[in-house]
Amino acid sequence: MSMWSSTNRLKYMTPTPKIALFGVLLLLLAGIAKTIEIVLFVVNQRFHILQMIDLSFVVRILFIGSVLVLLVAVLECRCRSDVRNIKHSVRQSLCDPAFGNPLHLREGEIEPSVLVMKNGQEYTVRIECMSADFEAVSDLETVISGSLKNKYSAYAVVAKEEDIAGCYVDYTIKDVVSEYGKQSLYHTINDIPCDATKVYVRDDVYIDYSRVLNSSAIVSGRSRSGKTTAIISTFLLPFLKMGRDGFGSEMIIIDPKSAELSLCPHVLSPDENGNVEHILDAIRRFNQLRIMRQRTINSACKESGVPHKWFELGMHPSILFIDEFVSIQDLFPKKASKEKPDYSLSAFQGLLRQIATQGASAGCFLILSTAEASVGTGGLESAVNNACGIRVLMKPSKEEARYLWSAEKLEVVRERRYSAGDAWFSADDGINNSVRFVKFPKLEFGEYEALSKLLTAYYADEDDAHNARSAANEHCAVPSPDDEENA
C-alpha cells in the first residue's frame, strides 16, 4: 500500500514523463561530461599538461542512452493500453494535490487503489480506499468523468454500483458522445426485428423478457415526446408481426382519449356515452387468458418433471397496452352499483394488479403509458408500480425521473437538450438495470397505418370465424356453438 504525499507530484504522473525525465537527465549528464572534457582540454593547453583526459566514450554512452530512453518514452506513450491510460488519469485526478484532493486525504494516509477492467465497449473503474470516507468514494462521478481527456474526452460515467460491504465503488464509463447519436432506422415493417423474448430498443440494445424479473412496463412522456411511437415500434409491431400462437395470445390496445390509436381496428375506446364496461370485459378476458396459459405451462411441467418457460412451449407474448393510464381511471365509477357489482374502479385496479404481478410467467405483459411521470404515483397502485420492471421516460428531466427511479440510480445521468424519441430507460434483466440514455427507433413509414395492417392480420382468422358464424345464423337459422353452450 502506498502512502499519500502532498509534495511528491512526480509520483502521480504517468510513466511517460517519468521516463522522458530520466532521458533528459542522461542527456544533461552527457552535456556535463562533454563540458568537463572541453574545460580540461583548455586547462591542459594553458598549463602545458601533456596528459589528456578523453571522456568521449562516456559522452557517447550517455547520449545514446538518453536517445534510447526518450525513444522508450515515446513507445510507452503510444503503446500504453486504454486500461492503463484510464487508470493513470483517474489515479492522478484522485491523488495529485493539483487536482484538488477530492478524497480529502491527509499526509501519510493510504492512497486509493484504482483498478480498471474492460467490458466490451465499456470500462469499469473500481475505487478502493481505506483512508477516505466511503461517502466521498461514492461521490466521484464528476471527478472521474472530468479526468478523462484527450482520447477519452467523449467518455463519462454512466453507471455506479456500490459494494454492499462498503469496501469499493465500481464506476462504469463509456463513450457517451457516439452513444448519443446511435438510433435504429426502420424504412419498412420488415426492418423491425422480431423475437419472442427480446424487445429491441436499438440494434444493439434490447430488453430480454426471458430474464426480466418484473416484466410490466411504464412509459412516461409529455405530449410530442415520441412516447406512443416508441411503444408501437418497440413493443407492439414486433409482436404483431409474429402473429397469434396456439395458446390464444392477445394484443389488447386501449385508447381512453379516443385519439389516433382509436382509428386502428381492434383498438378499444370509450363508447359515445363514455362507458368503458366493454374495456373492463376485455381486461377481464385478458386475465382469464393469463390463467389459462399458466395452467398449460403447469401441466407441461408436471408431465415432463422439469420447469418450463412460456416461450419454451411456443407461446407468443400477449400484450395489454393502456394509453394515457391516468385518463382511463376517471372513466370508471368509483363505486360499483347494485345493477353492475363488477363494474368499478376497484375492479379495474384489481385486474391490473393480477396481470402486472402474475402475468410474466405466462408471457402476459402490461404496458402503461402516462403523460407525466409525476401523476403516475397518484394514480398507480404501489403493487402495479413495483411490478413495472421496465421504465421509460421520454424527453427526460431529473424532476420527472425521480418519480420513476431512486435518487441513487439518477446520480450518474446528465440532463441535456433532448428531442422526440430520446429517453432514459431501465429494465430488471441484468443488462439494463442502470438508468441509461437511448434513442428509440425512427420510423420512415406511418406507424398507425402499419399498426392497423398488422392488427387486421393478427385477428384475421378470428374475424373470419366470427363472420362465418354470423352468416350461418342469418341464412341457415342453425344455432351456433356459442348459442348451444348458452342454452
CATH domain class of the largest domain: Alpha Beta
Spatial arrangement of strands, main beta sheet: 10-9-11-12-8-13-14-15
What global shape is seen? elongated
What is the H level of CATH, i.e. the homologous superfamily of the largest domain?
P-loop containing nucleotide triphosphate hydrolases
Structural class: alpha/beta
Tally of helical runs: 16
| Share of helical residues | 40-55%
Task: Give a quick account of the main beta sheet: strands, pairing sense, barrel closure.
Answer: 8 strands, mixed
**Uncertain residue segments:** 468-487
Spatial gap, N to C terminus:
85 Å
Q: Report the CATH topology name of the largest domain.
A: Rossmann fold
DSSP strand tally: 16
The average pLDDT is: 86
Please give the CATH architecture of the largest domain: 3-Layer(aba) Sandwich
When the domains are counted, the total is 3
How much of the polypeptide forms β-strand, as a percent range? 15-25%
